[in-house]
């Protein structure tokens, strides 16, 4: 059992329609070189996950993500400073994030937001950094990718106070039906990770059912949050295919309908070139 827990799950059958993993961390999955990235995305494509957005949470990861997005046409990037790392977020860090975020293969500003679960950065420092990232997304006209952990009210309040960018993605959406309705009414996009497949995530199941087509995405947040029944094992972008099938069952829809919605929404929000075949 110990060895199994360290192994990747099997690559699932190919989805009938190609989808996008809206949020992953290829570096944290173990990718270092262009060959590593290609191997991971090849595995994803075998499952029908044709493109990925690899996401940074500090400056080193941001530089790597922006570079990795130039190694394979199926890879795009998002850059920001994670809220838990905002204790020291000065002009040098802001300048570098802004430089990287302006690159063509960087399709979103993120992940940014608020994290009140971990006690790594003071709330006021997180909120100041969040406001700066909101402004950056608006200046660059790129989507804002939000990390929201036990901070729903403050995240929504600050978005309202600052004025949200044209596109807002709640990465690894963690709220229930009430939070989902507020986000949907505001025009935000909810991104569902492997947590939506967990049997005890009742509030998240309700949120997934009420979210209309065009306002939800699927992500892995790999190497974390591996979908059921492989919870606790390492994750990779191909795991998004498991989540798509679970989401279809939750919503009472055909897999191809959910996959098509995920694909078209990702293409619209991230402004990706269209992939029309599975």
Structural class: alpha/beta
Report on the biggest sheet.
Answer: 8 strands, parallel
Percent of residues in helices: 40-55%
The helix count comes to 10
Hey, roughly how much beta strand do the residues contain?
Answer: 15-25%
**End-to-end span in angstroms?**
35 Å
Please tally the β strands and state the result: 8
Overall mean pLDDT stands at 96
Round the Cα radius of gyration to an integer and report it. 17 Å
Strand order of the largest sheet: 1-2-3-4-5-6-7-8
As residue ranges, the low-confidence spans are: none
Query: H/E order of the elements?
Result: HEHEHEHEHEHEHEHEHH
Shape: globular
Characterize the structure shown:
InterPro entries: DNase_TatD-rel_CS, Metal_Hydrolase, TatD-like, TatD/YcfH-like. With 278 residues, the protein is of the alpha/beta class. It has helices at 2-5, 34-46, 59-68, 91-101, 123-140, 152-162, 177-185, 202-210, 240-251, 255-270, and strands spanning 19-24, 49-55, 75-79, 106-115, 144-149, 168-170, 189-192, 216-218. It has an 8-stranded parallel beta sheet with strand order 1-2-3-4-5-6-7-8, sandwiched between helices. Helix 3 (59-68) runs parallel beside helix 4 (91-101) and helix 7 (177-185) packs parallel to helix 8. The longest helix is centred in the middle third of the chain and has 18 residues, at 123-140. The termini are far apart.
């Amino acid at each position: 059992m110990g060895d199994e827990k360290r192994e990747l799950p099997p690559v699932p059958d190919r989805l009938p329609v190609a989808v996008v993993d809206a949020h992953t961390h290829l570096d944290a999955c173990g990718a270092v070189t262009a060959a590593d990235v290609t191997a991971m995305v090849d595995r994803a494509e075998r499952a029908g996950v044709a493109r990925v957005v690899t996401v940074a949470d500090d400056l080193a990861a941001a530089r790597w993500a922006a570079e990795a997005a130039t190694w394979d046409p199926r890879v795009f990037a998002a850059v920001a400073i994670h809220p838990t790392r905002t204790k020291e977020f000065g002009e040098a860090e802001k300048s570098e994030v802004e430089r990287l975020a302006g690159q063509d293969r960087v399709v979103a500003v993120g992940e940014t937001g608020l994290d009140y679960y971990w006690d790594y950065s003071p709330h006021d420092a997180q909120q100041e950094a969040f406001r700066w990232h909101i402004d950056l997304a608006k200046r660059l006209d790129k989507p804002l990718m939000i990390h929201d952990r036990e901070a729903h009210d403050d995240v929504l309040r600050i978005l309202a106070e600052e004025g949200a960018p044209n596109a807002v993605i709640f990465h690894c959406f963690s709220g229930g039906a009430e939070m989902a309705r507020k986000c949907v009414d505001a025009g935000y996009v909810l991104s569902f990770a492997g947590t939506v497949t967990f049997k005890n995530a009742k509030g998240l199941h309700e949120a997934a059912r009420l979210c209309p087509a065009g306002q939800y995405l699927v992500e892995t947040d790999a190497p974390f949050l591996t979908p059921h029944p492989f919870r606790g094992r390492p994750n990779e972008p191909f795991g998004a295919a498991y989540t798509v099938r679970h989401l279809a069952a939750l919503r009472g829809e055909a897999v191809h309908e959910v996959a098509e919605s995920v694909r078209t929404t990702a293409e619209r929000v991230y402004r990706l070139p269209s992939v029309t075949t599975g």
